[in-house]
Amino acid sequence: MKKTVLLLAAVLTIGFVSCNDKQKKEETATTEQVAETAKEEVKTTNALEGSWELVSITSAGAEGKAIDQLYPSKKPALTFEEEGKLYGNDGCNNLMGTFENKEANGLTIGDNLAGTKMFCEGVADALFTETLLSVTKYDIVDEQLVLTAGDVVVLTFKKAETTE
C-alpha cells in the first residue's frame, strides 16, 4: 500500500512539474511577443518624434504660392512627442493635440486639435490646420517628414534645427 501511495505521489509530482514547465514556456513566449511588438511601436513613434518645420503644402488654396507668401511671419512647425502628444504652430496660432500611429505608417491627428485664436492678416493658418487634419499616412523620405491624405502628398516638413 505504501508503495502504491509513493508511486502515485511521484507520478502526480512529475505531472505538476511538467505542466508548470509548459506554462512557463508559454508565458515566456508571450512575454517575448509583447516585447517585440513594443519595440516595433517605439521604432514607429521614434521616426515621427521631434520637431519639424514646414517645407511645402499642397492643398486647395496654396496653388502657386511659396511658403513665405502663405506664412510671412513664421513657418508652421510641429513637434511629435513619444506619448502621442502633438504641439506646434500654424504660422499664427499655437496648436496642441494628439496623434495616433496606425499600422503601415498610418497617422491620425486627433479631432480635438486645439489652438489659440489670434488674428494674423495674410496668413494661411486655417489652410494648414485643415490640411493637417486630413492626413492619413506619413513617411520619412530623405530625412523629410512627408504627410499624405489618401495617396496625395499634402505636407512636407524638414527636421527643425535645435538650439541648445
The number of E-state strands comes to: 9
Helical segment tally? Answer: 3
Mean pLDDT: 82
Number of domain units: 2
SSE order: HEHEEEEEHEEE
Roughly how many Å is the radius of gyration? 26 Å
Task: Describe what this molecule looks like in 3D.
With 164 residues, the protein is α+β, with helices and mostly antiparallel strands. It folds into two domains: 1-48; 49-159, Lipocalin (Beta Barrel), CATH 2.40.128.270. It is built from three helices and nine strands. It has helices at 2-48, 67-70, 125-133; strands spanning 50-57, 77-80, 85-89, 94-102, 106-109, 114-115, 137-141, 144-149, 152-159. Strands 1, 2, 3, 4, 5, 6, 7, 8 and 9 form a nine-stranded antiparallel β-sheet that branches. The longest helix has 47 residues, at 2-48. It is rod-shaped. The N and C termini lie far apart (82 Å). Residues 37-44 have low confidence and may be disordered.
Can I get a quick summary?
The protein has helices spanning 2-48, 67-70, 125-133, and strands at 50-57, 77-80, 85-89, 94-102, 106-109, 114-115, 137-141, 144-149, 152-159.
Descriptive keywords:
164 residues; Lipocalin; 37% helix; 3 helices; alpha+beta
Compile the SSE list and pairings.
Layout: H1 2-48, E1 50-57, H2 67-70, E2 77-80, E3 85-89, E4 94-102, E5 106-109, E6 114-115, H3 125-133, E7 137-141, E8 144-149, E9 152-159
Antiparallel strand pairs: 1-2, 1-9, 2-3, 3-4, 4-5, 4-6, 7-8, 8-9
Domain DUF306: 48-158
InterPro entries: DUF306_Meta_HslJ, HslJ-like_sf, Hsp_HslJ-like
Protein name: META domain-containing protein
